[in-house]
Amino acid sequence: MSVSSAILDDAERPVRAFRRKQLFRRVALLPAVIMLVLLTVVPMLNLFAMALAEISVSRGQTEWVFRPLANLSLLLDDTQFLTATLNTLLFTVLSVSVELVLGIGLALLAASVRRGKGWIRTVTILPILVSPVAIGAMWRLIYSYDFGPLNQILEAFGLAKVGWLSETSIALLSVVVVDVWHWTPLVFLILFAGVEGLPREVIEAARIDGANRRQLLRHIVLPLLAPAIAVAFIFRSIAAFKVFDQIVLLTGGGPGTATEVLSLRLYKVFFEQNIMGYGALLSVVTIAMILAFLLTARFSLRWLEARNA
Amino acid sequence: MLELRGRSLLLGRALLALSVVFTLAPFLYILATSFKTEIAIATGDVLFDPTLGNYQQVLFGRRSNFVRNLFNSVTVAAVSTAITLTIGLLAAYTLERQQHSRLVSRVFLGWTLVFHVMPTLTLIGPWYLIFRWLDLYNTLTALVLVHVVLNLPLTVWLLMGFIRDIPVELEDAARVDGCTPFQVFRKVVLPLVTPGLIAAGVLAFVFSWNEFSVALTLASRAAATVPIGIAQFAQQFEIQNGPMAAASMIAILPALVLMIFGQRFVVQGLTGGALK
């Protein structure tokens, strides 16, 4: 190797290194971007196009007819969609608030006993990992009118049987109970990790200053837990808003439309009534509602922060 | 530090014990039901002669496809988890170490957030049409692809958190020693992020194993997975409560195994986001 080429190599090395770095970072993100574009962005655009059309699928052939107003006029008279929206909101608010209260309480309680923490954590993992479908199947048997253990207990005490899933006024609450049973463990787990991670010095300092247990919880522990509570709240709200699986297994939306939620409504419009164009419009409306909620939440948080600052 | 004493300690213990009982009771009831005959279920007997009939019917019954469902579920969950982890880790690493312009990372992360918040059922219509058009309707491939994108947002966020904990000095040192960016990634980052990969992988696998709505709409026949199998027991006209309980117990097995052997990773995965 001659002297001149060695000098040239040295001069080129940073350039080559720079190019390699460029290459790696571009290639690294590419697979994820391609997957997301093909399977989420394109379907999303497709959804907007579908919402403007009437689509019929027959013998494997799809036929599109451009008819935007037809779908819109369907939407204006659709009380079932409105019911589903209200049911979803009710379900989300009820189940998430109960889960948060129980989860926070249990996490503080578990942090206050010296032994058995590992056991409690082990047990709580189980429901979190089990599929909503299996949970739905289990609770369907538990709620069974004729032979479910709940009604057996009522009968043993000489009380009348209850149609847990068949009475309009109770069905939604029964479904909420299953969700609370299924997901309080997750809230507990997140908050328990939060409690275990609290700075000991702060709590000791407050105690030395004479704070009693109630003051300690109210003024020190809960404010320090706020971020973990927020995470649990957001996680659970998002998932509760999507609820589908358990409801299909438990009630299928019934009795009547008592437990019909948004996801179930979309499924029925798409695959039972087979009106795909209108289903797409409902999907667009659902997405718009969620985006509006996200943006409002974000701006109100900013506004609160600005006001407090 | 919040220790209770005396009578309130007893009360606290009792409440916790009660919540453990409440959590486990439904599982025990279904376990018992899965060993009962249809008659014993209908009469609500507490004492009964245990039978393996339900499991036999689920696994070997002439009209049951459950073994096929199990095979499909394992395949879809394993393949989609492997793909999600690979493309998710590459994305998370370059995003966390700010190797992309602000615009690229904001658009990427913003879109994954929007997609994660949308109910899965909103995109079911387009997916159905697209996979029919591609001739992939009712195939495992379609399920794998959709499960990958459904899992991608959480996987990327979780792994970004784990990568944040790796000291950047280690990567700088390797770079000074002459490693290419890919070598830095493979020899420094990959070994250190392994616990994170296991945590994210466990969650992705469980999610895919449990996923119902996409399987129901894109793959309800030959490619049907375990949740579809359970739902079919619930929706047939003749009473199939025993087999349904048995199928649910079989579906729970991976969760049980993870609870016993992978607790640390599950807890890390589930609480990772909350503590950072």
Characterization of this structure:
- The complex is a heterodimer of chains A (309) and B (276).
- The longest helix of chain A is centred in the first third of the chain and has 49 residues, at 3-51.
- Chain A has a two-stranded antiparallel ribbon.
- In chain A, a hairpin with a 2-residue loop joins strand 1 (53-58) and strand 2.
- In chain A, helix 1 crosses helix 12 and helix 7 (168-196) packs across helix 9 (213-241).
- With 309 residues, chain A is mostly helical.
- Helix content of chain A is 78%, strand content 4%.
- Chain A has a domain at 88-252: MetI-like (MetI-like fold, Orthogonal Bundle).
- Chain B is mainly alpha-helical and 276 residues long.
- Chain B has helices spanning 6-34, 38-43, 53-60, 66-96, 102-117, 124-133, 140-164, 168-176, 181-192, 194-210, 213-218, 226-235, 241-261, 263-271.
- Chain B folds into 2 domains: 6-53, no CATH class; 61-275, MetI-like (MetI-like fold, Orthogonal Bundle).
- The chains are: A mainly alpha (309), B mainly alpha (276).
For this entry, give a set of tags.
A: 309 residues, MetI-like fold, two-stranded antiparallel ribbon, 12 helices, 2 strands, B: 276 residues, mainly alpha, 2 domains, 14 helices
